[in-house]
Structures
1.
Amino acid sequence: MNADLLVTGIAQLVTAEGPGPKRGAEMRRLKIVERAAVAIARGLIAWVGEERDWKGTAAEVIDVGGRAVAPGLVDPHTHAVWAGDRLADFEARTSGASYEAILAAGGGIRSTIRATAGASEEELIAVAVPRIRALVCSGATVIEVKSGYGFSSDAEMKMLRVVRSLAANTPARLVPTLLIHVPPAETGDRAPYLSDVCQTLIPAVAREELAQAVDVFVEKEAWRVAEAEAMLQAARQHGLGIKLHTEQFHRVGGLEMGLRMGALSVDHLEACSSEQITSVAAASTIATILPGVSLHLGLPSAPGRALIDAGAAVAIGTDLNPGSSPLFSTSMALALAVRLNGLTAQEALVAGTVNAACALGLRDAGRIEPGLRADFLVLQSSDWRDLVYTFGTNSVREVWIAGQRAEEACL
Ligand code: NIG
Ligand code: FE
């Protein structure tokens, strides 16, 4: 075999096995190869194994000096495009106001919508580029980015065009999602906006291939189940995937509707009951947990441990956004899931790679395996568990995307 590059000196190479089947039990398999090497040809993994078993030739050899190698992380839930800040909300919350009360009073998400409406596409790109770079530095090689800070079809299209420009600006693979976040400020506007979303926005987004899925926030202060269902039906009719922000504060039926409709993922789940855990486990939908939100808002943590024990497939995301999770590190999200949601290091790695890829409908990401894009991380440590053990500094030394070392890599 002829390779363009052979990476040697890998103390431990860790990867999930298999393409990420739907059921959790199969997804939890992790393979560790000691004293490993990886061969890369034309940006793809050509061979993986013990270094002593390599029999081919390589144009270039790079020795990583006895460090661990892990798959590029997949961040399946971010709101990386926004303008303004939520520092006043943060201060109000630290003085006792709740996230929901701030939203109900017209602040929170709605204040970010106003700030984002006032920014040009160029301004939004300028503020989002360093956020994407921070996620890449922390190990993300596939990143979902949502719209959702718009009260109009034009505003959502603008955000999705920004995501498209960001994708051209980073070696990471960006996966765009149309998020219909909260109804317009005046309550009377719900029905016209809903029909505009179903009849104009979703068809236009599908036609222009501006998003791969549609996400709706189902909550007392956001959309009702019937409204969300109408939007998700429209998404399905136009060939888009569907996902939900649901059971964050209250159980209003979003989770059951999402499972019934075959959503790719149901995200948040901090308020999930034990009966709902059983239903998620029985479904093909991925349960995406967002530990940054629990840390930042002081919410109960999503029942990650119970979900996995019941047989659900769990993914982890940063939920990077200014209001509920200003978390700019995908590896830190994994580290938090171990502490706050009761996952083991192995489960967190699977959740942040192959399961997160499944939450985006991707079967070709999150593993180090021949034929897949050569996305992998060289860690600071010789032991892969350092990825989820360390926090407050970057445990990722190098980020490789499609066989190239990303410039973003921090150290
Ligand atoms: O995933 N809860 C709804 N949406 C986002 C928060 C967005 C914001 O606060 O700006 C979330 O938590
Ligand atoms: Fe979110």
2.
Amino acid sequence: MTTVPDTAPGTANPLIAPTAEGHRRVLTGDRPTGPLHLGHYFGTLQNRVQLQLQDIELMIVIADYQVITDRDRADRVAEHAENLVLDYLAAGVDPDRATIFTHSAVPALNQLMLPFLSLISVAELSRNPTVKDEITHSRQAAVSGLMFTYPVHQAADLLFCKADLVPVGQDQLPHLEITRTIARRFNDRYTPLFPEPQALLSEAPLLLGIDAGKMSKSRGNAITLGADEDETARLLRGAVTDNDRHISYDPATRSGVSNLVLLIALCQGRDPHAVAEEIGSGGAARLKRTATEAVNEHLRPLRARRTELAADRALLREVLHSGNARANAIADRTLAEVRTAMGTF
Ligand code: ATP
Ligand code: MG
């Protein structure tokens, strides 16, 4: 695990040694746009589970309002939300200690968003590189106001529960910078209420999909946690590599090949250079075979748990139901503090 330390906005975030010490509450989340994939698992989900094991309180937001940033309708959103819960539990999140909730069930989040919007400029929102990338991949002809402002909604997600640590992938760093700016400005303008949350990156802050672009639920390039072993093999056989038979780990110049090497290394808990050396001149075919075996082996227990849990839809709904109740109680309390700080009724 690697934390990103305090830095002034706009400056590079030098990575520092792993530590979760001193942190009290973790919040992170996912859009209910489809099942979780290896990018989620190695990018943030493993860290969520590890932090929970260290007794740090874990909150997970299922960001259903965020689905309609880049498409007109949120299709099968309730089903996707339940399946996210399934993936979390299969990966080891303890539902008795975590608060898992949906955006749309916590109205106070939307009320927090309004004062937060006043604390950030249009120019700052328009500069966000992740939003620009999402616009490029968007299914919509026109860019909605929600696309530009959802990072502020995300600030409400983090600040309502005063989360101080956020295990995320690299694409979330610009959003987190917006949250930190909003927290700082609120504290300066009104009353010090909010911590400035820190990002926690993993060893795989940007896992690539089989097309060598960011692995994403919505881009048809993902290997999902729930995929079966044959499907995993089929997808990995189609992964983009290159013509050089000698396998090396060089993410800057050989992104597709290096991503598969990294995947093997993550599954086997090894150094990627050692993995590349072992495959040597075995070429892409051997690389893909090894990756398939490594992924299937690593995920076998998770997938078995997932199959068992999938039978109990009532449990998944109950986890969301109680998470929503708890999130509402926390959000109402924070909203009352914000109103007092601002002197409103
Ligand atoms: P969508 O395509 O619908 O946006 P997504 O795959 O990008 O889906 P999100 O729900 O947007 O997933 O992201 C949830 C969390 O997972 C975020 O913290 C994000 O940084 C992390 N994440 C997503 N994709 C990756 C990836 N390829 N590598 C590492 N982390 C990732
Ligand atoms: Mg995304």
